[in-house]
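Project outcomes to date are best conveyed with an example. Our students and postdoctoral researchers have been running inverse folding experiments weekly, and each run begins with a structure described purely in tokens. The record below, which covers 144 residues, was selected by the lab manager from last quarter's runs and is presented without edits.
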């Protein structure tokens, strides 16, 4: 008997995105704020999954309906949504890898203030144009 992946086969959520967060489960943008959009998305997903209730996968559809209902309730409750969003942001925050420690070779040393300063650098770009004074009007050569 074939095993069904309801997240992937019914909702289009690939295995790499499983288990889905509430927003992904409802087909929403991350951290959606509009309550009407959240409610409509939950209704849409639940209506679609209800089509599987009478079939061979009724247990899976009921499990998914329960998850959709929990996601809806969480995202439509302002305090629950705020707590969930905080937790999700922390979970999604990329873990910064520590910078590798590179030893400084012994022949390199830091310059002290008492050391002589580095020689001044010549400017990279110089302009050799002379300042322009008052300009004389060009003579009229087009015949007057």
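After processing, the design step wrote out the following sequence:
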């Amino acid at each position: 008997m074939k095993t069904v992946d309801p997240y992937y086969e019914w909702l289009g959520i690939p295995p790499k995105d499983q288990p889905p967060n509430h927003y992904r489960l409802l087909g929403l943008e991350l951290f959606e704020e509009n309550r009407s959009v959240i409610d409509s998305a939950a209704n849409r997903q639940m209506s679609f999954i209800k089509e599987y209730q009478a079939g061979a996968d009724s247990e899976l559809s009921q499990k998914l309906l329960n998850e959709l209902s929990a996601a809806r309730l969480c995202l439509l409750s302002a305090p629950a949504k705020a707590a969930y969003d905080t937790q999700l942001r922390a979970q999604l925050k990329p873990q910064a890898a520590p910078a590798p420690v590179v030893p400084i070779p012994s022949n390199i040393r830091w310059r002290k203030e008492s050391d002589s300063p580095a020689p001044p650098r010549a400017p990279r770009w110089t302009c050799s144009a002379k300042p322009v004074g008052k300009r004389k009007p060009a003579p009229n050569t087009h015949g007057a």
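The first helix runs from residue 6 to 11. DSSP finds five helices and no strands in the chain. The training component of this project remains on track.
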